[in-house]
Amino acid sequence: MPRPLDEAVRRERERRARAQRDSRRSIGKDLAQVGALGWTVVVTTLLGVYAGRWLDRRLGTGIAFTLALLLAGVTLGCVLAWQRLNRS
Known about the structure:
The chain is an all-alpha fold. It has one domain (26-87). The longest helix has 33 residues, at 27-59. It has 3 helices and no strands.
């Protein structure tokens, strides 16, 4: 005679396995992921631009640091987005 807890655990495992096997991602989840990935790239890019502008003003170097840190921010944002996409 199965115990109630064992039976509940078995049913839950079967339900999760069935859901994982049969499920497709909803459009809402896909849109949320695209938004999160976009923000990851945008925020790192803006941080790079902000830090570059601050350094350029401080050191009087024109736009050298702004451009360098802009590229670094875009690169970092894309790498982070790629990692997040592969984790999902």
